[in-house]
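Morning. Coffee machine broken again, so started the prediction first thing and wrote up yesterday's gels while waiting. Chain of 98 residues, entered below exactly as on the submission form.
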Amino acid sequence: MRHLIHHTSGLRDQWALTFLSGRRLEDVITTDDILTLIRRQKELNFPPGSQYSYSSSGYTLLGAVIEVVTGESLREFLRRPDLRSARHERHAFSRRSP
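Came back before lunch.
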């Protein structure tokens, strides 16, 4: 988990993978599409923990882990009262939600 958060996992970035697959930003791209692309990677860019390379893939995977573990959507999980703090009020879900 630490490597996913700190961009040291070695995973390729989901947007690079998306473009390499022939998709465009204008296309509808779901989380399931991205997870499929991540699963299809044959190897990592580098061994986990050995380098830093920004990758949105790690955050997408972390969101999927939260959903599996809690049984809630990421949006529902982040709305939990026990997670509300000044720091969490700034994430994208709170900003758009009443």
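Confidence is low (pLDDT under 50) at residues 94-98. Going to sketch it on the whiteboard this afternoon.
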